[in-house]
């Protein structure tokens, strides 16, 4: 009789543990989902890095380059969020602002807000210039006919397989190049980068980061890319759940490679918005600031 009672109590305990465990798992899952959909994806962190090179003119010492990427304007990234983002950018007082592609998530269905969004982008202040390149979302869905003119009206120089000089008053300069999107555009890597010189400090904007392995054949000092969203969803201590084409080898953050007779730095920005699903986990949206430092060594 006593044994039967003990077994009955044990069964009750097991059932109780199972119910508590199940409820705990459900609550944790709901909490994580809420965090990923309503909290993390609406955050913006600022990442600071120094870029050192002997080819940086002393006139550009401590100049700040601000990169933003992958905004994906649409239902999941609103005009109000864009306004807040631009305020945050201007508060950092950048000298140069660069955008590495994917402005609108679905070009065809984003019409009513276009003009207002352009007005907000016009408010970005950068005394030495604002530069942009095409991303795959800027090329798709009719965006090719729209994006370049739109961004130029917002005050950006859109670099499509071209090199420009960023000059200061005494004529000293650094260069900035931009390649067309590698998934849906017509990038011309050789005819563009053959114009950059070994003795100059050369920056490159290209949406897809994995292109850096081809870029390493040219005297580029610093490539800035996006596209990856940092994986958008990462498993802590493991990495991205899914990587996207041409953002598989380089997913987020700073990398140093062997360039043409000098180091080649690559920075992969995690972007601002989301695509496919309005979720981010362990991949907080970011603005990247790069402080140029002349290295006399």
SSE arrangement:
Blueprint lengths: L1 H38 L5 E9 L10 E5 L10 H13 L4 E4 L14 H9 L7 E3 L3 H4 L7 H7 L3 E2 L3 E6 L5 E6 L10 H5 L8 E4 L6 H4 L6 E4 L8 E2 L3 E2 L12 E6 L4 E6 L17 E9 L3
Parallel strand pairs: 1-14, 2-3, 3-4, 4-5, 7-8, 8-9, 9-13
Antiparallel strand pairs: 2-14, 6-7, 10-11, 12-13
Helix pairs in contact: 2-3
What is the gist of this entry?
It is built from seven helices and 14 strands. The chain is of the alpha/beta class and 297 residues long.
Task: Report on this structure.
This protein is α/β, with parallel strands linked by helices. It has two domains: 1-42; 45-294, Purple Acid Phosphatase, chain A, domain 2 (4-Layer Sandwich). Helices cover 27% and strands 23% of the residues. It is built from seven helices and 14 strands. The protein has helices spanning 2-39, 79-91, 114-122, 136-139, 147-153, 189-193, 212-215; strands at 45-53, 64-68, 96-99, 130-132, 157-158, 162-167, 173-178, 202-205, 222-225, 234-235, 239-240, 253-258, 263-268, 286-294. The strands form three sheets. It has a six-stranded mixed sheet with strand order 1-14-2-3-4-5, covered by helices on one side. α2 links the parallel β2 (64-68) and β3 (96-99). α2 runs parallel beside α3. The longest helix has 38 residues, at 2-39. It is elongated and about 95 Å long. The model has no long low-confidence stretch (mean pLDDT 93). Belongs to the metallophosphoesterase superfamily. Residues 64-230 form the Calcineurin-like phosphoesterase domain. GO terms for molecular function: metal ion binding; UDP-2,3-diacylglucosamine hydrolase activity. Its cofactor is a divalent metal cation. It holds the Pfam family Metallophos.
């Amino acid at each position: 009789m006593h044994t039967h009672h003990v077994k009955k109590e044990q069964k009750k305990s097991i059932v109780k543990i199972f119910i508590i465990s199940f409820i705990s798992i459900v609550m944790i899952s709901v909490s994580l989902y809420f965090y990923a959909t309503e909290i993390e994806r609406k955050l913006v962190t600022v990442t600071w890095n120094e870029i050192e090179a002997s080819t940086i003119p002393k006139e550009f010492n401590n100049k700040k380059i601000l990169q933003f990427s992958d905004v994906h304007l649409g239902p999941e990234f609103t005009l109000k969020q864009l306004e807040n983002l631009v305020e945050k950018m201007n508060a950092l007082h950048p000298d140069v602002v660069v955008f590495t592609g994917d402005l609108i998530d679905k070009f065809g269905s984003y019409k009513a807000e276009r003009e207002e969004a352009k007005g907000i982008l016009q408010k970005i202040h950068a005394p030495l210039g604002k530069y942009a390149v095409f991303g795959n979302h800027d090329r798709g869905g009719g965006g090719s006919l729209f994006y370049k003119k739109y961004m130029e009206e917002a005050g950006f120089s859109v670099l499509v397989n071209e090199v420009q000089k960023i000059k200061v008053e005494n004529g000293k300069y650094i260069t900035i190049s931009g390649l067309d999107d590698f998934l849906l555009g017509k990038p011309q890597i050789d005819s563009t980068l053959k114009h950059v010189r070994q003795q100059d400090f050369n920056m490159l904007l290209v949406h897809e980061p994995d292109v850096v392995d081809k870029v390493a054949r040219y005297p580029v000092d610093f490539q800035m890319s996006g596209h990856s969203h940092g994986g958008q969803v990462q498993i802590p201590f493991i990495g991205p759940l899914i990587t996207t084409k041409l953002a598989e080898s380089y997913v987020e953050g700073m990398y140093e490679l062997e360039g043409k007779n000098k180091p080649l730095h690559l920075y992969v920005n995690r972007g601002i918005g989301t695509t496919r699903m309005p979720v981010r986990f362990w991949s907080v949206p970011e603005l990247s600031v790069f402080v140029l430092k002349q290295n006399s060594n």
